């Protein structure tokens, strides 16, 4: 069994206001693969990343890099990070920012950085304060991808980019894993995730509802569209149910559960699911089981 580049075990993080942002999650990111972490706003995705990078402290759990407890040196030398907020020195020009990065970032390839800046058509003499959000993101990614790291942690790397730039960034991510690197990223764009991710974790209210390959997820989950009278079923609460388009649906999480559902609702129709379907069903059905949204 190949050891993961990065492994998170039973990670927990709560805030002073009582919110349990990360609730005992496990994650594995392997070399040569893209692992996507998806979830609604407030699911705990960014908090998870900040705990991994020691930007905030966690309550408990283990974070290992290449089989050993992660160190500050690992984070500085081996991990390249793009945060959700793409903050850069506003008074610097694009060229100044790249040159500064060469002085302060470990294993930085200055020539590669300028090649990436050129590929995004960013003006070298332009002040960062005058760049659009999308252009700032492209500059941040140019700097991050120019670092020769083992793993690239990217928080919403394509948010705010036009479709052409999005496609370019996704190809760059695929190129990284083609060179044996690991990519761990968050995204709200599920169609994008479905195209490039090797593995995906669906997070909701601090918990991982599913983690695995997309192929496994599609084989595992099925939607049952219930027909007939179900209002008097006393054991309905044992299922993960949700509503969509006026229909009452039940999420079957494996073959055994699917069989149990069909025994109770034999005339129902069964459908396969894509990532967007699985995400929506897991999040909504889990919300129904827990009773309402987290405040």
Helix content: 25-40%
Q: What best-fitting shape do the alpha-carbon axes yield?
A: elongated
CATH superfamily placement of the largest domain: P-loop containing nucleotide triphosphate hydrolases
Mean pLDDT: 91
Number of E-type strands? 14
The assigned structural class equals alpha/beta
Enumerate how many helices there are, as a single number. Answer: 10
Which strand-content bin applies to the residues? 25-35%
| Spans of at least 5 consecutive residues with low confidence | none
Strand order of the largest sheet: 6-7-8-3-9-10
CATH 2nd-level architecture of the largest domain: 3-Layer(aba) Sandwich
CATH fold topology of the largest domain: Rossmann fold
Largest sheet: 6 strands, mixed
Radius of gyration: 21 Å
Number of domains: 2
Helix-strand string: EEEHEEHEHHHEHEHEEHEEEHEH
How many angstroms does the end-to-end distance come to?
A: 41 Å
The CATH class label of the largest domain is Alpha Beta
Q: Could you characterize the architecture of this molecule?
A:
There is one protein chain. By secondary structure, the chain is of the alpha/beta class. The protein has 2 domains: 208 residues, P-loop containing nucleotide triphosphate hydrolases (Rossmann fold), CATH 3.40.50.300; 78 residues, Alpha-Beta Plaits. It contains 10 helices and 14 strands. The strands form 3 sheets. Strands 6-7-8-3-9-10 form a 6-stranded mixed sheet, with helices on both faces. Strands 2-1-4-5 form a 4-stranded antiparallel sheet, with helices on one face. Helix 4 runs antiparallel to helix 5. The longest helix has 16 residues. The protein is elongated. The mean pLDDT is 91.
């Amino acid at each position: 069994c190949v050891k993961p580049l990065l492994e998170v075990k039973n990670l927990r993080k709560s805030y002073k206001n009582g919110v349990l942002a990360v609730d005992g999650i496990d994650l594995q990111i392997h070399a040569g693969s893209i692992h996507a972490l998806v979830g609604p706003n407030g699911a705990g995705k960014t908090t998870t990343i900040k705990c991994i990078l020691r930007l905030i402290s966690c309550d408990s759990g283990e974070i290992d890099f290449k089989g050993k407890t992660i160190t500050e040196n690992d984070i500085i030398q081996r991990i390249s990070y793009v945060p959700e907020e793409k903050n850069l020195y506003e008074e610097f020009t694009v060229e100044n920012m790249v040159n500064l990065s060469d002085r302060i970032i470990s294993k930085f390839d200055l020539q590669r950085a300028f090649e990436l800046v050129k590929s995004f058509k960013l003006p070298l003499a332009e002040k960062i304060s005058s760049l659009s959000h999308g252009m700032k993101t492209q500059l941040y990614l140019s700097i991050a991808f120019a670092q020769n790291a083992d793993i690239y942690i990217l928080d919403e790397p394509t948010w705010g980019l036009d479709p052409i730039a999005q496609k370019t960034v996704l190809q760059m991510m695929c190129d990284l894993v083609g060179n044996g690197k690991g990519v761990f990223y968050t995204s709200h764009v599920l169609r994008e995730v479905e195209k490039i991710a090797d593995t995906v974790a669906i997070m909701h209210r601090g918990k991982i509802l599913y983690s695995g390959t997309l192929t496994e997820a599609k084989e595992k989950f099925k939607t049952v569209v219930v027909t007939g009278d179900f209002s008097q079923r006393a054991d309905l609460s044992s299922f993960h149910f949700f509503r969509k388009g006026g229909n009452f649906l039940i999420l079957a999480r494996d073959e055994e559960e699917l069989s149990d559902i069909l025994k109770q609702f034999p005339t129902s129709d069964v459908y396969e699911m894509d990532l967007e379907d699985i995400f929506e069903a897991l999040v909504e059905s889990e919300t129904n089981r827990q009773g309402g949204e987290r405040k």
